[in-house]
Specification:
It is built from 8 helices and 10 strands. With 252 residues, it is α+β, with helices and mostly antiparallel strands. It starts with a strand and ends in a 23-residue tail after the last strand.
Length: 252
């Protein structure tokens, strides 16, 4: 699972919101969670689940049912990237990185601007998120090279839509635009598969919205991803965005 839990899950209460966050992870049956906006709630959630816990920064953490063999603080900014090697048993290892890249420019506002052009949106991405993801991928090169022996997942809040969603077929949904979003393109060019789009190849039928279940009237899009590379087989994905009382985060 990847989940931005929104201010530590505390928007609906310091205790109640965190409790609901742990309930949702448990109900989903996740064995590993790449978490963003952890903000102090990670140890509480990990304890509630009986999971191992890695703290990279106030923002980023990883929770895992499997033991953490080593940690990988390979990029300069701990607020943006951190990873672990997990021991799965039987001599098998697995690498998971949690990621959060720049929230600006606010693409939700930009894409709805009257008369905006695709080239303008791409240029805006190249001010922040484009260079960031390419720098991160350079830092991940040693793990990418080993992905055939130790599978690699990079998951998180990428704050950017996907070129696999903004296609010719979905122009009407996207302000008349088909767009080669730089971040998702960089991940694809680095050999990563988009798990959700792999198992749901039709973006018109299965948009996979992760932003935002808390505000149905707001711009809806997919900005949270699980990317994988190496000896892994994707057998299915789903978006989780419902709780019996109230969903505690602004991300699915």
């Amino acid at each position: 699972m990847t989940w931005n839990i929104w201010n530590g899950g505390r928007e609906d209460g310091v205790e109640l919101g965190v409790e609901r966050t742990a309930q949702i992870i448990a109900a989903a049956g996740a064995d590993m969670v790449a978490m963003q906006e952890t903000y102090g709630s990670g140890p509480l959630i990990a304890d509630a689940l009986g999971f191992h816990f890695y703290w990279r920064s106030s923002n980023l953490s990883i929770l895992s049912r499997f033991p953490i063999a080593s940690t990988h603080d390979v990029w300069d900014d701990p607020f943006r990237l951190g990873g672990v090697t997990l021991e799965l048993g039987g001599g098998r290892s697995f690498r998971l990185f949690t990621l959060w890249i720049h929230y600006l420019p606010d693409f939700c506002s930009e894409v709805q601007r009257q008369g905006v052009k695709a080239a303008e949106l791409v240029a805006a991405e190249e001010e922040t998120r484009g260079p960031e993801i390419r720098s991160i991928l350079r830092a991940l090169e040693p793990f990418i090279e080993e992905a055939d022996s130790v599978p690699l997942v990079v998951a998180g809040d990428f704050n950017s839509p996907s070129h696999l969603d903004w296609t010719e077929a979905t122009r009407e949904r996207h302000c008349g635009l088909a767009l080669a979003w730089p971040v998702s393109l960089a991940m694809q060019q680095a050999g990563f598969a988009d798990a959700y789009r792999h198992s749901h190849p039709d973006p018109l039928r299965m948009p996979g919205r992760t932003w935002t279940p808390r505000s149905p009237q707001a711009w809806q899009d997919r900005i949270d991803y699980i990317y994988y590379r190496g000896r892994l087989r994707c057998i299915g994905t789903e978006v989780v965005d419902e709780h019996a009382v109230r969903w505690p985060s602004d991300h699915a």
